[in-house]
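Please go through the sequence line and C-alpha cell line underneath and see whether the fold suits the sequence. See right below:
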Amino acid sequence: MDSADPIRIVIVDDHAMLLKGLGVFLKSYPDLQLVGEAANGKEALVLCAEQRPDIVLMDLMMPIMDGITATRLIHRDFPDIAVIILTSFGEERLIKEALEAGALSYLFKKISADNLAAAIRAAKRGVATYAPEVTEILVQSLHSPKFMFHVLTPREREVLGLMVKGFGNNEIARDLNITVSTTKSHVSSVLSKLGVASRTEAIIMVLAHNVNLGAFYIP
C-alpha cells in the first residue's frame, strides 16, 4: 500500500504495556498508522465514531464493555470497520461468539509482528486470517460435517470460492453479474448442502480440509 494512504488502526486493550508495545510495533511499518487507543469496548466505540479507522485490534476480556459486545456494536454501527480479535483466549465458545458478533479475524497475542502486519493488510482487503489453533478448534467443533462439495452446482462453487476470498453478498453479486437476492439464495443453499450454520464454518471447511481450490473459482 502507498505509504501516503496508511491503514488506520485503533487498538483496544486494558493492559497499558500491551498498548505501548503495539504502538511501537505499528510505527515500524510505514503503511500502518495508529489513530487511537482504548482500554475497553465503550471507549472503542467512541474512537470508532471519532476516527473512523479501517481496522480495530480488539482484546476480549476488558472491564466496562468486553470485546465481543464491542465487536457486535462496531459491526452494527460501523460495518466498514474490520475487527481483528487479538487475545490470549482460545476457548471454542469465545471464538464462535466473536465471529458471530462480526469479527473478521481471530489471532493470538503471541503472533509475530510481521504476521500481524500481514493480517492487518489482509483485513483491509476484507480477507480473514485465523490463528492455526482457531481453525483446528472450529473444525473439531463441527459435528459430523458433510464434506459434500461435489453436490454443489457450478454457480454455488463460484459463490463459495468468492466467500473464501472474503467477498460479501454485494461484491459476489457484482462479480458474478447476478442480483443480491440471487446471491443470498446461493449462499443459503451452499450452507445447507455443506451442513453448516454460517459462512465462517463453510470457509473453515474449505481451508482446513484442503479442498481442491481450483474448482472453486479461486486463483
Q: What stands out?
A: DSSP finds ten helices and five strands in the chain. The beta strands are 7-12, 32-38, 55-58, 82-87, 105-108. The CA atoms of residues 92 and 138 lie 7 Å apart.
